[in-house]
Design a protein that fits this description.
about 110 residues; alpha+beta; six-stranded antiparallel β-sheet; about 40% strand; elongated
Length: about 110
């Protein structure tokens, strides 16, 4: 579920458009609708407030002015496990590849 301070990716017509941070989610007068205040992470920074259903906040596609929109919560990718990193380092060391300096190539 998308919450305050989450980073989201806004899709416009199935194309990624912009990243935003959810600043606030407050209930609207209509049941199951919310005012979603977002800080668009672009230059210049811009704050927008959209009135959305809870399903739209959580990734269900909706329309604005007849255009398809979707909000997708951004999840930080997990770092590879230490054992995998050690295996990769071992492979790099075992290949015995020679490093060629760019400075040496310029001299030739």
């Amino acid at each position: 579920m998308t919450q305050k301070n989450d980073i989201v990716l806004i899709h416009f017509e199935d194309q990624p458009l912009a990243f935003a941070r959810i600043e606030d989610i407050s209930p609207d007068i209509k049941k199951d609708w919310y005012h979603v205040k977002m800080l668009l992470l672009q230059v210049p920074l811009q704050v927008v407030t959209w009135i959305l259903r809870d399903a739209y906040i959580n990734g269900t596609e909706f329309t604005m002015s007849g255009k398809r929109m979707r909000i997708e919560k951004v999840v930080c990718p997990q770092e590879p496990e230490i054992e995998e990193e050690k295996k990769e380092e071992g492979l790099k060391k075992s290949t015995n590849q020679k490093v060629i300096s760019l400075a040496d190539l310029k001299q030739k």
